[in-house]
Design goal:
Blueprint (H helix, E strand, L loop, with lengths): L3 H4 L11 E3 L2 E3 L6 E5 L6 E6 L3 H18 L4 H17 L1 H12 L3 H22 L5 E3 L7 E8 L2 E5 L7 H13 L2 E5 L6 H13 L6 E3 L6 H10 L3 E7 L2 H12 L4 E5 L4 E5 L5 H13 L9 E7 L3 H12 L20 H16 L3 E4 L14 E4 L16 E7 L2 H8 L4 E2 L1 E5 L3 H10 L4 E4 L10 E2 L2 E2 L2 E2 L2 E2 L7 E8 L3
Parallel strand pairs: 7-8, 7-10, 8-9, 10-11, 12-13, 12-18, 13-16, 15-16, 18-19
Antiparallel strand pairs: 1-2, 3-4, 5-6, 6-24, 11-22, 14-15, 17-21, 20-23
Helix pairs in contact: 2-8, 3-5, 3-6, 3-7, 4-5, 4-7, 5-6, 8-9, 10-11
Length: 490
Amino acid sequence: MASTSVHGLRDPELFQTKGFIDGMWVDARDRGVVRVTNPATDEELGTVPEMGVEETKQAIEAAAKAFKTWSRTTAKARHDILVKFFSLMKENEDDLARLITLENGKTLAEAKGENVYSASFIEWFAEEAVRAYGEHIPSAMPGVRNVVIKQPVGVVSILTPWNFPSAMITRKLGAALAAGCTAVIKPPPETPFSALALVVLARRAGVPDGVINIVTTQKNVSEVAKEMCENKTVKKVSFTGSTTVAKLLTRMAAGTLKKVSMEAGGNAPFIVFDDADIDAAVEGAILCKFRGSGQTCVCANRIFVHSSVYAEFASRLAEKIATFKLGSGLDEQTKLGPLIHSRAVEKVRQHVDDAVAKGAQVLIGGRPVEGTGSFFAPTILSEVPADALVNDEETFGPVAALIKFETEEEVIKLANDTDVGLAGYFYSRDVGRVWRVAEALEVGMVGTNTGLISQAVIPFGGIKESGLGREGGHGIEEYMNTKFIAFGGL
């Protein structure tokens, strides 16, 4: 456990450096550790255990044992625990946000926003726990009553990414707990401390031993994920991350026909039509593209701008971006934090270099920032060609790729020319166009005249190769089985 003088936490118990299985803080059996660093300073924050398959099996067994009792608690009892959990997240918001900033790098303001978002899932699913209604279906046969009930699926494997260290856990865990499921969570090796802090608060809220288990790993991630997907005791797998990994995990889970929720990669179009409010579009693009230093699955990846407003939009966007201060997220003046690690910086560099080599122009930025930390200058690329790599892959970095278009039909075709379909955005003041384009975009979520769509209450998810299932608003259904009961002889 680190001292408050190191990490500045008001409650040092929130910084845990062990895994969590069956109500106990545990080390790896072989005492191996994963070193976690601050991406803004490259300094080591601490270590967590390098766990493997044996620890994963132990966690699954603990979850299975706890499921026998947790699944039988009343919906009201689960509601009350989740409400207390939510309150504790609010009470400890400063410490939770600080942990997010330290291990992820995002600004403290964004980290505080994530904690609000993260806690909102716990609050939402607390209320959903007591609304998991069944139904009565009128029978075609006399003397028979048809009843449908909902029951928790069982042990759930949860695998989460580093870009939202807290929210991607609570969006899944809140639904699982509300439904009556128990969970084994594998947080990313880059950002494990937020997950462990949530366990501390969940325990204080009254979540029993074995209901939540945390397995930390880095080098053993493939073996651990395989066990979490293939183990017959696990009845549901929920993952957020890349499309490549989502496909791999889905294949593993298919061996036992588990339920799966896969929130995979995106390549979000952001469209600015000729009748758009340009100031609003610029602000929306900044919020959508540069939040989290561009490391969000729903952030704008391809920015299509009508030729008649292209120069104005590019100029105003560049003017705003030029004022961004890079640095540690703990500095109140920082507007843009680091990328998660040097590999992320290299990927962004490749995308920029590829676009420039094919004819794009750099309006601002375009290079990594030398020195300590994993920083890349906020970048705007103009005249990005259709065959640029950025059009085919998520950049996951602070690069706004501007592409000119002429007609509504043309831009819809360009926007949909991708294998994935998570989110899409556009700006227009023509109500007819708003409906046409919103319906035509091949994505699971659309933001019209807004760059921010994420909320706890919405059905979050994509189509095509962006995944399966929905989280958030409709998410509890993903953690429940539907059972039909026919009562005869009445």
